[in-house]
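EI: anyone free to look at a 565-residue chain?
SC: sure, send it
EI:
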Amino acid sequence: MSAAAVAGGESAVELLRRAAALVPVEHYALAAIAVLSVLGYQFLELHVLGDLLRGLRGGRVDLVFHPASEIYHCVASKCRSLHGRYLATPWLASPHLQTLFLGISGRPPSFMYNRQLYTLRDGGTLALDWLLASDLEDADGIISQDASTPLVVVVPGLTSDSDAAYVKHLVHSMATKGWNVVVSNHRGLGGVSITSDCFYNAGWTEDLREIVHYLHHKFPEAPMFCVGTSIGANVLVKYLGEEGENTPVAGAASICSPWDLLVGDRFISRKLVQRFYDKALAFGLKGYAKLHQPILARLANWEGIKKSSSIRDFDRHATCIVAKYETVDTYYRRCSSASYVGNVSVPLLCVNALDDPLCTREAIPWDECRANKNIVLATTPNGGHLAFFEGVTAGRLWWVGATSEFLGALHDSSYMHREKAEDHVLHSSLESSIDKSPYVNVLGDGLVAPATDDVVNELKLDNGVNGTQENEHAKEAENRSGGIEVDAVPAQSPAGSAKQQGEMANMIHDAIAPVKRSINRLIRYQGRSVWLLAYIAFVTSWPLLGSLAFIVFRKKFRNPFSAKQ
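SC: here you go
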């Protein structure tokens, strides 16, 4: 037949076309659906078949910890959720579907916050949104200063605030547990304007540090726990690493932290789907910038901000300029929390999904977490970014339950971190000047109505009393001291008046008064040791004369040494 077809003048292409026309159209449709399904399955990273092959039992939660970690053996080992499996909602069996659904809906619980406006030391303003355990019980909604109810501080992610679905899931869960919760919104978010020339970024820990010490100073009897999500987790871990033992935080949880910002930057621009997330986040950052255009236009490169199509572009034109980083890579390296993991001294639960489309598993500091006895790292095969939906209706987030269970077990144990007593004294001067703003309710249209109080005046009064007492002590020390007189000051010229002599005497008196008080203290508390100090100063200035003086007065120098021994 082929020979006859060739003889008839038909080409091979025409023969294939005629053969293809004999295949029913339905078969082509089925083939197209099959190909698109395979491509879509791979593109969306679906794991429905994997869940079915595992009998819908979900993936196992893998834990990384130090073999001698008491935090694991005495706290995490009691958490059933950390030793079970996580099964994603069947119709959200994809990290992208989970992340997308969380951003669009998330099905958060319904409740109202109580808002407190807090003024930072540099003039910036933060919105602290509270949900107390009593709010869910229709009580007065007021937390007493000596209450021992645990307090949870939540640090949201990039461009997120207290209204984010995942934040509401966490806040409601902890308040239902009987704990008080406060969301520390970032600067410029939560409907609050920027009131200083400082903006938040992925490594800015000063705001969290000030809020933590303010809350600890205001509620000293309440055990304080912190939960950071996404960029907020990076800020939290970095803060814990910077503070080490010197923090009042009793325990913490890090959820979906990016860990290494430089690795994350390379990852988010690697594939097509990740570049989509990059553009979406950059769009959100530009929206944040437009809210505060008058300030950013003055401090940063506004034209570059408007043209930014990625997070890196925004950081180049805004973050690096405002925060004074030389390059974007410098900013990413210095602000990555992975570098601070080794110094974390607070019990810390870290949760990451291995299929997170924003925070790659390549950035997780596996070895550093394993080397720190205070850290337990929990990873799941699935979960997306901050999603971890479970149940047929996707009404729960797995990581919320795991965090609540871990912090509850930690609170019931004897392994909560406690700040050293002397550290409170070191921070007292800072805490005394903190503006303790009142609680105000969030109105229906999103506006807030801050009220004023007399705390600042009381603090000023206290400082005035303390200053008066210090002056009285100084005067008493001067009255008790003697030996140095400043009244006899020679005149510079015969024409000099008595007024000029008095001014000169006052100047000399003011200059040497601190030295005189220091010498008198040494004399009172150290006795003859002051002569040893004088000898050391003499020797360091004139070595040869000092050696000769030691030979002459060596008997007098033996007494201080023998007294010390």
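EI: The two ends are 118 Å apart (CA to CA).
SC: 👍
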